[in-house]
From TrEMBL:
Annotated function: Required for pre-mRNA splicing as a component of the spliceosome. Contributes to pre-mRNA splicing after spliceosome formation and prior to the first transesterification reaction. As a component of the minor spliceosome, involved in the splicing of U12-type introns in pre-mRNAs. Also plays a role in innate antiviral response by acting as a pattern recognition receptor sensing splicing signals in viral RNA.
Keywords: ATP-binding, Cytoplasm, Helicase, Hydrolase, Immunity, Innate immunity, mRNA processing, mRNA splicing, Nucleotide-binding, Nucleus, Phosphoprotein, Spliceosome
Reactions this protein catalyses: ATP + H2O = ADP + phosphate + H(+)
Parent-protein start and end of this portion: 366 to 1045 of 1045
Protein's UniProt name: Pre-mRNA-splicing factor ATP-dependent RNA helicase DHX16
Protein location: Cytoplasm; Nucleus, Nucleoplasm
Subunit structure as annotated in this protein's UniProt entry: Component of pre-catalytic spliceosome complexes. Component of the minor spliceosome, which splices U12-type introns. Interacts with GPKOW. Interacts with TRIM6. Interacts with RIGI.
Single GO biological process annotation from the record: antiviral innate immune response
Entry similarity comment: Belongs to the DEAD box helicase family. DEAH subfamily. DDX16/PRP8 sub-subfamily.
UniProt EC number: 3.6.4.13
Amino acid sequence: IEFVRAAQLQGDEEPSSVPPPSAQAQQKESIQAVRRSLPVFPFREELLTAIANHQVLIIEGETGSGKTTQIPQYLFEEGYTKKGMKIACTQPRRVAAMSVAARVAREMGVKLGNEVGYSIRFEDCTSERTVLRYMTDGMLLREFLSEPDLASYSVVMVDEAHERTLHTDILFGLIKDVARFRPELKVLVASATLDTARFSTFFDDAPVFRIPGRRFPVDIFYTKAPEADYLEACVVSVLQIHVTQPSGDILVFLTGQEEIEAACEMLQDRCRRLGSKIRELLVLPIYANLPSDMQARIFQPTPPGARKVVVATNIAETSLTIDGIIYVLDPGFCKQKSYNPRTGMESLTVTPCSKASANQRAGRAGRVAAGKCFRLYTAWAYQHELEETTVPEIQRTSLGNVVLLLKSLGIHDLMHFDFLDPPPYETLLLALEQLYALGALNHLGELTTSGRKMAELPVDPMLSKMILASEKYSCSEEILTVAAMLSVNNSIFYRPKDKVVHADNARVNFFLPGGDHLVLLNVYTQWAESGYSSQWCYENFVQFRSMRRARDVREQLEGLLERVEVGLTSCQGDYIRVRKAITSGYFYHTARLTRSGYRTVKQQQTVFIHPNSSLFEQQPRWLLYHELVLTTKEFMRQVLEIESSWLLEVAPHYYKAKELEDPHAKKMPKKVGKTREELG
Ligand code: ADP
Ligand code: MG
């Protein structure tokens, strides 16, 4: 692949001022020396004074300057956790919260979960002793439910604020309010060097504390022509860099787990074939679902003579700093959620990243020495096809969850909530309408008893509704399993390249009439019967780690059942009840088969069953889906066969009999023999 050098990202340091520290030297240095070497360290006193003098402080600093790992420690050392008070530091990503907490625990010489811990959905690694709490922004949001004034916290640091995730944006509004009546609460908003003026304005002109950057220049290269297959282009370019460029590690940005695993496999494959013709290349993936022992490997120093290539999602853009990166390879894509409030459709698609993102990525190459960034697109594409910045998530996602939460916090007038950027009016309206349809709000927009229960469960409103409905259909045992399995979605089945046929056969063996939700239930039930065995998983091409996670999630949900007044009961194999309970939550996500394929019932959108679905070949007339994913088409993932009459049973206020009439049905005999359920 041919690259042309087109630009340079200015550094703050001269290219030759400091030689890149060798891995060994770094490892030998004590952990405290590393702490003292970080850009934030010389500003420790000044920063603490600024925090003492101002209630709200915006902190801006280049990625890797020590904001996340150091500032909470400085506050701890300064005594902000005396009298049992806690410090919260929020992260948009689960992996970042876990990894950073582990690092800080090591720096402080304590066991993770004691003084330093993390808390992410369905996983709480904290204890009574925990005073430094790294947590996802979503978890801090849920803290408001139990402690609306955050009374046990002395400092809240909203980190990675520039990411502008939905939860971070909502936190801004809530924290600003709490800060007004808790003058002793300190609020820190930390961000990479982007958009900090916006945060300052939002927090009544709070001062901005700048940690001067320390970055070497980065040369930027573009491809001469567009690349058709960026995954292949990535693999080729990594090997090209490995063979032609001086030592230094490589960081590659891809969009998600599947892509990353594919790229890693391809790289390892080709390295194996090249054998001793090339130097050793360590291929390391990093993405959200990667087990933590594997995550930790990306931080280990590269052995002498070898080179490391880290294949990462956006997580490595600003949330995690990997030392020793000299080369960045950027295909220019990311996975982005989008939402159409007109149709209520949410989809996750691979889209070109923004210029701001591209420049953050390039910056990762200049942390230890002058670096190079190879972009797998043309200079023209950069100029003309990339947006300046990423649209905040609040403007491209559904708001059901957040609206339910705000309503539970007693915030009724959502139109006038203090948003940094308001969501589209239609999105807000649709969220209210859906919550009304689910029975969470009454016609005045007030929270109902059922809505209050739904907010108690840390899952999407439709999923909570499904769990609540399992009481009526006496099948909470099964529904809990379905809910848990859905939440580890898409990583249940294992499909190694060299055993595709075996793996696919194993998957088909789990199929049950009715659809994918029952398949998930079947997998879990059989696994439980095996005594939760890893051997069983191995033999059946099921991912043990995902199953273990599903078991954790299931246990936690089970623990919450009492709070929402649902008893533990089993349907004893009467799967119609399970399917009706699922329909009670997902009646919004329904599609019917027409002459021209599937159409969603309300919006008449054309959709398709995902080829991995157990119903792919059966094409039932009516179905519901768990989610829509837009890849080459709008695919429904996790689909369940339903009967249209159930929709009238579970959501009479939402469906009219007329719109559920089936034009084909009249030509068919009313009932041919027994249905599959009756036979089964
Ligand atoms: P910032 O939040 O300003 O981007 P961090 O506090 O995350 O910076 O990182 C500061 C430094 O701490 C990094 O440059 C890196 O050397 C080190 N570091 C952070 N996380 C880890 C980790 N999990 N393992 C090893 N080193 C880490
Ligand atoms: Mg950080």
